[in-house]
Amino acid sequence: MNDVSEISYAEAIKDAMAIALQADERVFLMGEDIGVYGGAFQVTGDLVHRFGEDRVIDMPISELAGAGVAVGAAVNGLRPILEFQFSDFAALAMEQIANQAAKMRYMLGGEVSVPVVMRFPSGSGTGAAAQHSQSLEAWFGHVPGLKVVQPSTPYDAKGLLLAALEDPDPVMIFEHKLLYKVKGEVPEGHYTVPIGKAAVVLEGRDLTIVASSIMVPRALDAAGELARQGVSAEVIDLRTIRPLDRETIVKSVCKTHRLLCVYEGVKTLGIGAEVSASVVESEAFDFLDAPIVRLGGAESPIPYNPELEKAAVPQKENIIDAALALASGVR
Amino acid sequence: MNDVSEISYAEAIKDAMAIALQADERVFLMGEDIGVYGGAFQVTGDLVHRFGEDRVIDMPISELAGAGVAVGAAVNGLRPILEFQFSDFAALAMEQIANQAAKMRYMLGGEVSVPVVMRFPSGSGTGAAAQHSQSLEAWFGHVPGLKVVQPSTPYDAKGLLLAALEDPDPVMIFEHKLLYKVKGEVPEGHYTVPIGKAAVVLEGRDLTIVASSIMVPRALDAAGELARQGVSAEVIDLRTIRPLDRETIVKSVCKTHRLLCVYEGVKTLGIGAEVSASVVESEAFDFLDAPIVRLGGAESPIPYNPELEKAAVPQKENIIDAALALASGVR
Amino acid sequence: MTGYFKQQASPENLDDRPFAIRHYSADRLKDALYRMHLIRRFEESAEDCYMRGLIHGTMHLSIGQEASAMGACMSLTPDDQITSTHRGHGHCIAKGADVARMFAEFFGRQTGYCKGRGGSMHIADVAGGNLGANGIVAGGIPIAVGAAMANKRLHPGRVVVSFFGDGANNEGAFHESLNMASVWKLPVIFVCENNGYGMSTSTARSTAVEHIATRAGGYNMPAGIVDGNNFSDVTEAMQPALRRARTGGGPSLLECKTYRWRGHSKSDRNLYRTKEEIQQWQRKDPIARFESSLLEYGIATQHQIQQTADRVEGDIERAIDYAKESPQPSVKDLLKYVYTEQQTP
Amino acid sequence: MTGYFKQQASPENLDDRPFAIRHYSADRLKDALYRMHLIRRFEESAEDCYMRGLIHGTMHLSIGQEASAMGACMSLTPDDQITSTHRGHGHCIAKGADVARMFAEFFGRQTGYCKGRGGSMHIADVAGGNLGANGIVAGGIPIAVGAAMANKRLHPGRVVVSFFGDGANNEGAFHESLNMASVWKLPVIFVCENNGYGMSTSTARSTAVEHIATRAGGYNMPAGIVDGNNFSDVTEAMQPALRRARTGGGPSLLECKTYRWRGHSKSDRNLYRTKEEIQQWQRKDPIARFESSLLEYGIATQHQIQQTADRVEGDIERAIDYAKESPQPSVKDLLKYVYTEQQTP
Ligand SMILES: Cc1ncc(C[n+]2csc(CCOP(=O)(O)OP(=O)(O)O)c2C)c(N)n1
Ligand SMILES: Cc1ncc(C[n+]2csc(CCOP(=O)(O)OP(=O)(O)O)c2C)c(N)n1
Ligand SMILES: [Mg+2]
Ligand SMILES: [Mg+2]
Fold first, then answer.
1. Separation between Cα atoms, residue D59 and residue C296, nearest integer Å
2. What domain range is D152 assigned to?
């Protein structure tokens, strides 16, 4: 077994990239200010010094072409990892992501594959306001041809990235900015976390909380408090948004009979909508003892003011309140 | 009361634009080949001859700037109606739509409004393959600050467009290409259809079918057949995707106890997910006698081959089958 | 800027025959003529099939533009690559595709280049170096740059030619891509087929400069303008661009002035241009001009040219038969090719 | 291209004082100095508040770039408009904003220009003609073009100035916008503040041409390059562009060569440039240079300059106090301003 060390989520991602750069000549990184600057969130850090400017490439501020260049390079045999500086800027590149990367294999009848990996620093909580704080994973989750993951721990961040690099199809990784400095145990060397598999990160009896990204640690925090109040919550970390691991979710709901979906993206048409609809469509329907509750982002852009910003996305207290209300519902 | 005539969906949209161009100097149309060509789907038709090149403006093939120009013009007092040639090209303009148009009012603390109207010809069925056949309304429905409508009849197409022009906020209109030639009764002159209100287009007892866009006529066709088979379907036309009229849907489900959502967009994270999740979260939960069923687009890009293309989105027969299965479920 | 790429007549170079005649063997020239005829007849026949309801969807014909497609591809090796556009049949054939598999694609069959999933707007021939037409105007340009980036690293010497239209040059993707290719000195050649219109919108109404090639100045890139209806001129103009690309010099831009005889797509009523304009360009038929040149310089006889046309006729017929007889894809394979099937160990 | 916009010394024009000294009244020049000081001190104080944890988020300081902001806005009327960037404090103040409301915004207060919803990256002053900073690089450029389109129709003579950086000029939005503005001859002036870097990436590493102004050729647009640290040169270069815009001539591009003294944002460790480079540019301090000029031509005395600095000091202090004492927005108003509240009849 590999040695395990306590490193941050950002370091874990960097570690994965370093391993890939080392092991596979075809791998390269591309993005804005990922070289000597080390990336806006210092995720690429010193990689340019270790692997050179040919493998860690600063690109012009051209998100659309950047995505297209990654697609073309991938089709032709390289393994690009494209960093968006903020996930919000993906809005500039949706054409190449959704119309080209996602569809090229299909449109060409399987004659190519597009093994591109894109990384999107996401989420609010940094005071960066409406255009630097979004959680847009639902847009990508709606696009067949893409795979979409959302790691919540350093372990998963590394393992999912290494899995993405082994995947023949485009994988979009939504990282959370507030998680970058969070530490956790990470094995050294190469390992993967399977794309498409959710994880039951806490077993419980009374309700299932399905969460993703930063909402996972918040849900776990909340579950601790809930346990003190006599409510046993099962917490599922989605990890992958597309393809969604419906099986794991359904199984849990069949056990607990109650479901709370927690996610940071805008509530309407956010990933909780899909989780809820999938459960209601499944055999778990018959086991539901209460309405499924969704706790998602507010129906507003992310505001700058810190108090408003906090109020715009689910916090631990909101999760506790929602879980208590849900669990106490006697029917 | 105004005279009523039988005109097509495309003609109804053109009629609305003509009325607005006539009544309000600030209104203008902008798009690719909407002038002498009359628009890719002949929706603007001869308007350039009636209102001149200053009011019906052919623009370069620059969707991103086109959207931004519409935003700037709207902020400064004009009332642009921007036509995208195909909704798929919106992927090029998501930045200006989602980061600017939708958020500008909020980010500026209410100091501006952005009364822009954008029209998106959508949907499959024309053999135009993966990059010209998408139904992307769910992306827009996920963005606070936007309003999103999806007319299914000539009457609504005209009334919703005229309502959009009276709305102070950005309104995105998703039109269906296969509906352009469909005729219906449309009053002459000015009237509006309220944004944010669904319509019960057929009353029924046994199940509710919530549909939108082209799925409404398909659902109505299916309902006719279902009636012959002894199943009474209530059909709701969503008309607006954002803000969603949850009240009308919930009320219907409380009556029928069964819900089938039919939509053309990709099933996962498509509008049916939100409809389903909204119902399950509501008081209608207690009335549900069967799992909510979603009939959405396939988890694939739209293929070129006509048989595959048909199979990729719900057809009348699929609706009938799903409704029969749902209605027959005895619990 | 015109003629930037044109070789000067020099004392040592007293041979004043057109470049192509000097440069390519008679066989290769005759093959080029064959392919130009093939493009023309392929499209005329596709149009006919469309009219008769045998092909659905829409299609964009490049009739009248055969010289730029064939000229730009003439000095490419099979390993070189292209990215193409919605108006991509000519590029596909010029790069060496089999018209039978192209027709099969148009007929939506499993034997088509895209197994019936792509149709005209996504026609491709990956093995032959065509990474695909594109339904998104300018959508293929950044992909070409990325492909060139990979080639630079994995296959030095390989070149990517990215075709696009005059309309495409107003897309942000054009700008971002040309800048990136130039900064990184990538082996890519941007070939703009300027046919005067993006759909109904003339370049004068859409584009702030008269010549697309002018924009190369903003990317520090050599550019040339050629008569896109003159096969030899196009092949000649490609040479310095190819040399530059193959030797690490970076990208170039070539603007071919040409014209499409047909409407933009099947739904075009041609309201934005005059009959006279069309006729005027038809008199500059690139195939007829190439034929005259072949005759003039004794490369081919009238009889041989007729034989070529006849051979094309037969090939097209056989191709259509092949397409018609090919199997339809199975509806149960709707989800195939969305993702790569992973080997189950 | 340098000096394109610079007036030639002509026989009639024997006055060889700098343009601004000749052109503006002493009062207006002193007000410009006041505003340049205000920009500098506003940012230094904002930085200080940020360091002390009074302001959250991030901010992008334009210290060292005051002359381009003030120079570009100097001949604008209150009705003229600007669109700004992530580095937008200077533009905002130059266009006439009240620093108290700006600080209030940075402090997230209800009295801020954006009622605490926008913060530094969205600072705006719509009534004063600033349509807003923008968190998206190049995001404001198309909006400026649209605003100019509306002005052309509704308010002939009004001009929109769109500020952006050298990094922004590689975005597709830049290209599409400049083309559209040129084709439609819109009254907009594109002012590129070229400070040599987009974040850590030098123009040499990101941009295929040395001068952004070179790109104007691709849009058939007059362009000029000026010393962006020379207030007078900037005001002078704006004149033909303003004249052209106000009289229906269309857009222009002005490139101001300048430098930011601080890091890109609060998280910058300045690894990509040398101390020497920074110091070299600090010796070209636009404020000090403007002061010298005012002294040299007898517009202001050293004492008056000191008074200006003192006045700024007091104004900044009062502004911060105002901000600190201003009310926070109410959390229950989270959804306010997402949509326009419709009057219930
Ligand atoms: C992004 C995008 N916008 C618009 C269209 C619709 N469209 C298809 S081809 C075309 C005109 C393209 O003109 P040009 O690039 O000159 O190529 P040509 O058709 O003349 O060969 C347009 C507007 C599209 N397919 N993609
Ligand atoms: C579309 C987009 N891409 C990237 C960023 C991140 N970012 C913010 S400012 C900046 C550099 C901009 O450089 P430039 O335009 O030269 O302006 P400067 O910061 O030098 O004033 C970058 C990369 C962004 N905000 N928006
Ligand atoms: Mg063209
Ligand atoms: Mg800069």
1. 71
2. 2-6+25-321
CA distance C147 to C144: 5
Provide CB contacts within 8 A for B101, sequence distance 6+. Answer: B67, B70, B71, B74, B114, B116, B145, B146, B170
CA of D272 to the centre of ligand 2 (A): 15
Q: Which of C86, C215, C270 to mutate to test the pocket of ligand 1 (most atoms within 8 A of CB)?
A: C86
Task: Check if the interface score ipTM surpasses 0.95.
Answer: yes
Q: Give residue-wise pLDDT tens across range A11-35.
A: 999 999 999 999 999 999 999 999 9
Domain enclosing residue A118, as ranges: 4-187
Confidence bin at D266 (pLDDT 50/70/90): confident
pLDDT of residue C254 exceeding 90, the answer is yes
pLDDT in tens, D288-331: 999 999 999 999 999 999 999 999 999 999 999 999 999 999 99
Q: Is residue C327 part of a domain?
A: no
H or E segment and range at residue A117 = strand A117-122
User: CA B75 → CA B70, C21, C322, distances in Å?
Assistant: 9, 60, 58
Among D172, D178, D182, the residue with its CB nearest the CB of C176 is D172
Instruction: Say whether pLDDT at C178 is over 50.
Output: yes
Q: Is A245 exposed, middle or buried (0-12, 13-18, 19+ CB in 10 A)?
A: buried
Q: Tell me, using a 6 A CB cutoff, whether residue C199 lines ligand 1.
A: yes
* Planar angle of CA B295, B300, B305, nearest 5 degrees: 100
In a domain, residue B194? The reply is no
In CATH, what number is assigned to the domain containing residue C207? 3.40.50.970
Residue A192 covered by a domain: no
Q: Ligand 3 centre and the CA of D183: distance in Å?
A: 17
* Neighbours, chain C (3 or more CB pairs < 8 A): A, B, D
- Say yes or no to pLDDT of C1 above 60: no
Q: How many domains does chain A have?
A: 2
With a CB cutoff of 8 Å and minimum separation 6, the contacts of D303 are: none
Whether the per-residue pLDDT at C215 is higher than 90: the answer is: yes
> Model pTM?
0.98
Q: Is C41 part of a structural domain of the chain? A: yes
Let me know if residue D55 belongs to a domain: yes
D60 contact partners, CB below 8 Å, separation of at least 6: D86, D87, D88, D120, D121, D264, D265
Inform me whether the C-beta atom of residue A46 falls under 8 Å from chain D C-beta atoms: no
| CA end-to-end distance (rounded Å), chain A | 49
Q: Nearest C-alpha of chain C: how many angstroms from B35? A: 9
H helices present in D188-301, as ranges: 203-206, 231-246, 275-282, 286-296
What pLDDT does residue B109 have?
98
